[in-house]
Write a structure and sequence with these properties.
It comes from Marinomonas primoryensis. This protein is an all-alpha fold. The protein has one domain (about 1-220). The protein contains 9 helices and no strands. The protein has helices at about 1-25, 30-45, 45-60, 65-75, 80-110, 115-135, 145-155, 160-180, 190-220. Helix 3 packs antiparallel against helix 4, helix 5 crosses helix 7 (about 145-155) and helix 6 (about 115-135) crosses helix 7 (about 145-155).
Length: about 220
């Protein structure tokens, strides 16, 4: 388990460092994203949708504030078109992360975990608990991309990964874009409250899952 956590933390740090670097340099900020979306809207809804998709796919390589982008997509494109664009962008990022890690992640895993036995243990552990990790990955930024890369690296079945990814992503994208569609510059409260509610719900699920998982070995020992 320690080896798996170490790999996840390394991936998390790599994604987080890109986000911090771009924010500190001013290359990619929430204000800039909002300006770009406004300019894209002036061209056409099609360009707007393509820009949202591209921005969310870019999140696979450079950490992007995806919840903010999803809410803004709902605000600028409306709920239906915003939802479609966000879902496509999320799906492309997840599948891209899975495939790249499936093809090239084995070499990286060998470097990060040199002991073959520990590598096998990490793979087995993720295949056992990875489904829940993907399902609840939207609880915090960067974790969805990390979980997608881990799924490919740890050779989780693609069908299993895609099912979990969609179950996690579809309601998240639907709610986030809905929040944006009913919000405005003068009244951003719906987006703020729904964003807080989404994160709170997912964190609560994480808490109960972790609690149930950590108590299980104790109950077995007691028997």
């Amino acid at each position: 388990m320690t080896a798996l956590i170490r790999v996840a933390l390394i991936l998390f740090t790599l994604f987080a460092s890109t986000f911090l670097l771009l924010n500190l340099t001013g290359i990619l900020t929430v204000e800039l994203i909002e300006q770009w979306l406004t300019q894209a809207k002036e061209l056409s809804p099609t360009y707007m949708g393509l820009f949202v998709i591209s921005l969310l796919f870019l999140d696979l390589f450079v950490a992007v504030p995806t919840l903010t982008v999803a809410i803004l997509a709902g605000y600028f494109l409306g709920h239906s078109y915003g939802f479609i664009a966000v879902l496509i962008g999320f799906s492309m990022a997840g599948i891209g992360g899975y495939c790249l890690s499936r093809w090239y992640g084995g070499k990286l895993l060998t470097v990060l975990i040199k002991d073959e036995k520990k590598r096998d243990e990490a793979i087995t552990m993720f295949q056992k608990h990875g489904l829940v990790t993907i399902l609840l990955s939207r609880a915090m930024p960067i974790l969805p991309e990390v979980s997608a890369c881990l799924a490919g690296m740890m050779k989780l079945r693609f069908r299993t990964f895609l099912s979990a990814w969609l179950v996690s992503t579809v309601p998240y994208a639907f709610i986030a874009t809905y929040a944006g569609s009913i919000s405005s510059i003068d009244n951003p409260k719906p987006a703020i409250f729904i964003a807080i509610g989404l994160s709170g719900l997912l964190w609560t699920c994480w808490f109960f899952y972790h609690r149930a998982h950590t108590r299980r070995p104790i109950s077995k020992t007691a028997k």
